[in-house]
């Protein structure tokens, strides 16, 4: 399979995301005089309507903003209900937890796990507050103006895009086995004809239009302290949930300082925990001390560095207030050098090191003034918890799935905690000057996608579109590695796979591209303007002027 899309060159401004209608909504805001944050918000709001299997109003959000002079990070992830405890989860699951959810990745998903659906994994949605908080600090157009396209698509309908329809159908089929009053609204909203909408079919969600109007008019107060909050608390009380009005009212986003490592003379930036961005930074920090070398050897080293990054992230990342090891210790040059020494020339099983102690959409935007945004939001898995609020047209996330049931782990499930998060926005600079935002969505694939995109850009010199289109690999657990068909069968592919197998990697060709994630990137050009790429494996959209 080939991905023939060409990069977009734009002299003034650009929007890149996973759905064309959402990209167009962001571009319309830029043309009305909005800045990159306004465009990012219009795009993000629209994505909840046009790509609901991957993200929704009831999800979480993380963002990195270059304001023209420096980077800012926003952690708009929610916390668990105050009533959620490890003992309650164990009692509800027969004392052993649930089967591990595959989306967590093998390194984290060993042993009993949190349930993937229903009320237990529901955490407070951070998306509405995240939209408001980004606008409060950086927005220029009226907040309500950024909701116009999304409300129109929800009220009057829109034709569902191809890749979204495929993911939607899979999720609806999986929903068939879920019973209980908390799941009753899902089918009415997302499968009103008894099935998922097919590509090109028009789908409406008047409940979401109502919710978005309330958020726009109240600057999200209705969601956390008003009518939506009351409806959520009532629905939880009636159907077995733990979420309360107090949980919603207590929610607050956090402005954080992004963290970075050096790679090939650049700085790669991620957000600090509770996200898994440290896994990408650890891997890149390890690889920065290695020469690329032959193709098979370089891919082997990337895989092994990613394993080490994940081992440390899964061992140490937790709610930032409960971290036992500071991010700075994990990214310290001495620790990265020690982890680099753990690389071997054969496939290994990852083990966490000992530092010194102390379902997703992605978008990026850039404007004529030099402001750039890297933003990611998600409900996790497909439609999150599958709990939908009657009359309001949105699903609640299941981010609590990221908690652990090991009582000794810093990420153990508990009250009012932020769980380990998979969604991570990225940003690239060079000697402090901005290069641009990037991201690759897809659960356990995300740090791996960041490593592969940055290596393709800085080691191979590819433009954003070519770097995104380059064949990918995906490490799941142990020594198992999935590769795309064109990587295994293209020029040099058979020899590369054979070499990796001699090193102990268990290589298999993935049956479809969805496991490899979907990404976007925008790089600022030295002569002015931008060059951008958007995912060709799905319905990626890119617009600029």
Automatic annotation (TrEMBL):
Q: Read off the InterPro entries from this record.
A: GGT-like_enzyme (IPR052896), GGT_lsub (IPR043138), GGT_ssub_C (IPR043137), Ntn_hydrolases_N (IPR029055)
Output one GO MF annotation: transferase activity
Q: Which SUPFAM superfamilies match?
A: N-terminal nucleophile aminohydrolases (Ntn hydrolases)
Q: Which domain of life is it from?
A: Bacteria
State the Pfam families in the record.
Answer: G_glu_transpept
Q: Which UniProt keywords apply?
A: Transferase
Q: What is this protein called?
A: Gamma-glutamyltransferase
């Amino acid at each position: 399979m080939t991905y023939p899309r060409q990069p977009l060159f734009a002299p003034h401004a650009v929007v890149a995301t996973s759905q064309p209608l959402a990209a167009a909504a962001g571009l319309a805001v830029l043309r009305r005089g909005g800045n990159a944050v306004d465009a990012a918000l219009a795009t993000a709001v629209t994505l909840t309507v046009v790509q609901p299997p991957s993200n929704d109003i009831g999800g979480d959000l993380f963002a990195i903003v270059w304001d023209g002079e420096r980077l800012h990070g926003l952690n708009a992830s929610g916390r668990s209900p105050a009533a959620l405890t490890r003992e309650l989860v164990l009692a509800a699951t027969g004392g052993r937890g649930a089967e591990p959810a595959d989306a967590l990745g093998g390194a984290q998903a060993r042993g009993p796990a949190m349930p993937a659906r229903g009320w237990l994994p529901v955490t407070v949605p951070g998306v509405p507050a995240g939209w408001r908080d980004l606008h409060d600090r950086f927005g220029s157009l009226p907040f309500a103006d950024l909701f116009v396209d999304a409300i129109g698509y929800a009220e009057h309908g829109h034709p569902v895009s191809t890749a979204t329809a495929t993911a939607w159908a899979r999720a609806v089929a999986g929903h068939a086995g879920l019973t209980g009053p908390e799941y009753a609204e899902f089918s009415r909203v997302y499968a009103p004809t008894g099935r998922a909408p097919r590509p090109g079919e028009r789908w409406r969600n008047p409940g979401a239009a109502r919710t978005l109007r309330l958020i726009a008019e109240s600057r999200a107060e209705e969601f956390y302290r008003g009518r939506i909050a009351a409806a959520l608390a009532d629905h939880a009380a009636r159907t077995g949930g733990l979420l309360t009005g107090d949980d919603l009212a207590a929610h607050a986003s956090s402005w954080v300082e992004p963290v970075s490592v050096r790679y090939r003379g650049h700085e790669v930036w991620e957000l600090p925990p509770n996200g898994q961005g440290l896994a990408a930074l650890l891997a890149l920090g390890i690889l920065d001390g290695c020469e690329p070398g032959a193709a098979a050897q370089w891919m082997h080293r990337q895989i092994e560095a990613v394993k080490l990054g994940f081992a440390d992230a899964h061992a140490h990342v937790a709610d930032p207030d409960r971290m036992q090891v500071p991010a700075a210790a994990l990214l310290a040059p001495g620790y990265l050098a020690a982890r680099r020494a753990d690389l071997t020339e054969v496939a290994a099983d990852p083990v966490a090191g000992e530092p010194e102690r102390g379902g997703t959409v992605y978008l990026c935007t850039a404007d004529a003034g030099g402001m750039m945004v890297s933003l990611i939001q998600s409900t996790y898995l497909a439609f999150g918890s599958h709990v939908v609020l009657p009359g309001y047209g949105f699903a609640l996330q299941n981010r609590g799935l990221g908690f652990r049931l090991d009582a000794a782990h810093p990420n153990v499930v508990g009250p009012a905690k932020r769980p380990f998060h998979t969604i991570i926005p990225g940003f690239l600079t060079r000697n402090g000057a901005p290069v641009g935002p990037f991201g690759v969505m897809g659960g356990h694939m995300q740090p791996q996608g960041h490593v592969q995109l940055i290596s393709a850009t800085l080691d191979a010199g590819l433009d954003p579109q070519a770097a995104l289109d380059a064949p990918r690999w995906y490490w799941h657990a142990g020594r198992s590695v999935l590769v795309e068909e064109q990587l295994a069968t293209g020029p040099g592919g058979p020899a590369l796979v054979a070499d990796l197998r001699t090193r102990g990697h268990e290589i298999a060709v993935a049956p479809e591209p969805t496991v490899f994630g979907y990404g976007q990137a925008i790089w600022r050009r030295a002569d002015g303007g931008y060059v951008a790429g958007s995912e060709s494996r799905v319905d990626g959209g890119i617009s600029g002027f």
